[in-house]
Amino acid sequence: MWLSLLTxxxxxxxxxxxxxxEPDHWVLRNxxxxxxxxxxxxxxxxxxxxxxxRVYWRDARLYADWGTIAGGGTIAxxxxxxxxxxxxxxxxRVQVTVAGRLLCEGGQEFPEAIRYRITYTLGxxxxxxxxxxxxxxxxxxxASGFLALAMAVPDAREWYAHTLEGVAAxxxxxxxxxxxxxAEESLDPERPEVGALWADGRRLAVTDLRATGxxxxxxxxxxxxxxxxxxxxxxxxxxxxxxxxxxPWTLALRLVTHPE
Length: 260
Description:
Blueprint: H1 2-10, E1 18-21, E2 25-29, E3 33-38, E4 44-50, E5 55-66, E6 75-76, E7 84-90, E8 93-101, E9 115-122, E10 127-135, E11 140-143, E12 146-152, E13 158-163, E14 166-171, E15 177-181, E16 194-197, E17 203-212, E18 217-224, E19 227-236, E20 241-243, E21 249-258
Antiparallel strand pairs: 1-2, 2-3, 3-4, 4-5, 5-6, 5-12, 7-8, 8-9, 9-10, 10-21, 11-20, 12-19, 13-14, 13-16, 15-18, 16-17, 17-21, 18-19
């Protein structure tokens, strides 16, 4: 379905960045890349591809699935089917902001639901800016568990990470579970970047990773060969945090596509 939406977006005239708005999805596009945001999945990207239609990122997830944040269950942005979506255009860029809540399956309101706001920024180049803001409506003095933004990199051949010890890189191969994590090998604070490479020479860089509040772990995970994902875990089982309503947790990054 999303590939057909991408095809429609690719038929639009090239030039300055634009936003194509449909009832169930919005597409940010320029001459280099396309980003499809699905309203039915909380306004998260279901597809990021280059102008040739080659997919770099698919099926983003924002969720918590255990600990005090999730209340022992699972809450997710994908269960929020009515996010507020707004757009600002000008100065050679488009900026789409999505606001919603992390909800239980079926769209049920979780007590004291966490609110999220994601801003996507697209200019004329081959990169997409993303800023996530999470807000709690009540004081949480023992915020703990697992809370992450995750993205699939379908059929990627190799991962890399800029660490304090240099660049770590390896093929995904047949390995499963977590194949690398910053909790064991810290990212370089001067160049906080991870990325994926494909057999055709393409590369995706997830760079300028910055957080206010916790970012306990960044890790590559492969469920099975050809199905790898990047997890940006604000919470990942470490000691509880104090989280106040007037202190949002934020995560910012840039997705940069390199066609070859």
